[in-house]
Amino acid sequence: MGILNDRVIIITGAGGGLGAAHARVLAAEGGCIVVNDINQQSAQAVVDEIQAAGGKAIVNTSDITDYADSENAVKQAIETFGDLHCVLNNAGVNRDRMFASMTESEWDTIMSVHLKGHFCISSHAVHYWRDQAKAGHKIDARIINTTSGAGLQGSIGQSNYAAAKAGIAALTLNQAAELRRYGITANAVAPAARTGMTTAVESMAQRMAKPEDGSFDYWAPENVSSLLAWLASTESASITGRVFEAEGGKISIADGWRTTQGVDKGDRWQPAEISQAIEQLLAAETPAQKVYGS
To answer: In which domain, by residue range, is 211 found?
Structure first.
């Protein structure tokens, strides 16, 4: 059927937006999809659509921010489809506000849904895969995380979201380094697509509107889903620890923080000498991309 034949995949936040698009595309490629969403009605609608098209999918309503409850998603996948091959962490929310006005609740909500939400189900999945590997079974498993350009470059009015998404990118690097020994890869994708979150602002909604002339729908979420389908497949086994960006028909790799050559005095810098060192560093640097909105 496709590149995901009988691969069992949990997709979080799959009741709408990008997650629903991922579920449809990955199911069309032969994947067995666990549609996770706290909104059962929305998740069921996606499952019904997949099944009507001949695909395999089930509803799961585990709370991704609750460690104990999130284990049920892994258990349900294994009990229903006999195995688990991929966790695609997609679920997310926004609580946008300028940093000076941000509340503790707005900060905590984003950290819970994004950072903790990326930990919980993946942790239980890794325990399952590690046990299988120790028992002598060959593991070809995937963790796919969702970061954002806001996390890679920053975004005015989104310090909570940017911090969480940057944390997810760093988490991905650690997972890749630690889990490869078990046959588990970890990669992240920063998507740019038309969803409820990105079109909440009228100007963005107009810019990302579906073209009426039938031309290429640049902002369609399915454009991103194609990359995720490949990352979930056996074809991506050699790829780990990467952060991809996907927008329209363009796929790129985000080049992370790197240590520059630096300026080395060979001795302790005196405070009065630091200005000269900084001038040399700035003269040789490749400037970072601008913070979104700046």
So the answer is: 8-253
